[in-house]
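Worked example 2:
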Amino acid sequence: MSSRRTAKISQAVLESVSSTILFELKDPRVKNVTVLRAEVSADLRHAKIYVSVMGDERTQALSLRGLNSAKGFLQSKVADRLQTRYTPVLQFVLDQGVKRSIETSQLLRETLNDEIEDETNDAEESDPATTESVEDEFG
């Protein structure tokens, strides 16, 4: 089987699952869920759906439990869309990549702010005579 066909089926599974979660799933446990990617096995019998859930660990676990209980409904929607001999069995995996990137950018932002504060403090602690002469030259 070609990898192109597998990629197209992965994309179809991704679109079907994400639109079903967004518009048709009524489970109150499933909220703030973003479907990131789908990987379908070569024999088209299994599909890993990588999701990101905004919130704390409890909210993430609750949303995953809701997704797993709605797995049959989601698989039926995928079956309607694909119309292949076998419908992939869905497995939901929590992807921590988005959460890690947010944490990393926050750490970088804090580090840059600390460096700016250090430079400002160093400039204020520098020789006042030098500061006065610079002010005299420029205004």
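The chain is about 60% helix and 15% strand. Residues 100-129 form one domain.
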